[in-house]
């Protein structure tokens, strides 16, 4: 396993982070979820990402159980706050002081830990003054309940404003968690340059484009049973933008490149995001332990400039680059 510094800090994280969005507490049984976490640990993964909103708090409970008995100091545990939890009352979402201070206590209890290494604003809250949000995060850090602060899917302007306030409050805002893959490159134009300037790293989610970059979806073929594309609870909607005949056919053209490197397509896709020096870690999810073991092997893989050029020739023209997508997909209220 490769380890990288997270932002302009002394904290190192594993280049592969195990995340339990859409799996623990919902799509896979708890016993399998625990097996996936153990496979991650066996693969050298030390960083684990979750959120209170995942499965309405159940995912945090499952992760806490799965990590029980591990040396806490040897792990980096990340969670997030923003989305609606509990009975979803008027103050059960967002980044108000009330919700942040109540949510961190709930997360720590479910995760069975005294602190999280990274506490992240899951989205930007347009209904709460940023000053209030950052002051609440500062208090969480000073109380010893979180060591560092991060955000997820913030625009370049939001990152700049949040970082300035964090600096004034003497806390470290060191990470952003955006979607990033061969097919979704919207951070490259604005978010990444600003992040480099401010000392913020990316912890990227969906490096295999919700499974599309594994090559399991083939043009003209039936969808694999139990796959994300058949999940009517939300997975199918998220993946539909990539499920075009042109994209699916082009993904198959990556097979010769992967085989030359003794990789499968998922490993190639993860190695591709990790080639970016602003990416500290790529989040992988799994429904089976063997998926974790296989994908973790992407850590430490070096892609030559020639290989990157060949990948761009296959998929570059199909990728989304528009930086406005981050703002367009951001919640317009706490409830969305």
Summarize, please.
The chain has 13 helices and 10 strands. The protein has 336 residues and is α/β, with parallel strands linked by helices.
Keywords:
TIM Barrel; eight-stranded parallel barrel; two-stranded antiparallel ribbon; 336 residues; alpha/beta; 13 helices
What does this structure look like?
- Strand 6, helix 4 (130-142) and strand 7 (146-151) form a beta-alpha-beta unit.
- Helix 1 crosses helix 2 and helix 1 runs parallel beside helix 11.
- Helices cover 37% and strands 13% of the residues.
- It has helices at 30-42, 58-66, 97-111, 130-142, 156-168, 191-198, 235-239, 245-252, 255-260, 265-274, 289-296, 305-315, 324-328; strands spanning 3-5, 12-14, 16-19, 47-49, 76-81, 116-121, 146-151, 173-176, 201-204, 279-284.
- It has a single domain (3-208, 278-301, 322-328), classed as Alpha-Beta Barrel (TIM Barrel).
- Keywords: NADP, Oxidoreductase.
- Residues 16-314 form the NADP-dependent oxidoreductase domain.
Main sheet overview = 8 strands, parallel, barrel
Order of helices and strands: EEEHEHEHEHEHEHEHHHHEHHH
Number of helices: 13
How much helix, percentage-wise, in residues?
25-40%
Number of E-type strands: 10
Average pLDDT rating: 92
Low-confidence stretches: none
N-to-C CA distance: 37 Å
**Topology-level CATH name:** TIM Barrel
Question: How are the elements arranged and paired?
Answer:
Blueprint: E1 3-5, E2 12-14, E3 16-19, H1 30-42, E4 47-49, H2 58-66, E5 76-81, H3 97-111, E6 116-121, H4 130-142, E7 146-151, H5 156-168, E8 173-176, H6 191-198, E9 201-204, H7 235-239, H8 245-252, H9 255-260, H10 265-274, E10 279-284, H11 289-296, H12 305-315, H13 324-328
Parallel strand pairs: 3-4, 3-10, 4-5, 5-6, 6-7, 7-8, 8-9, 9-10
Antiparallel strand pairs: 1-2
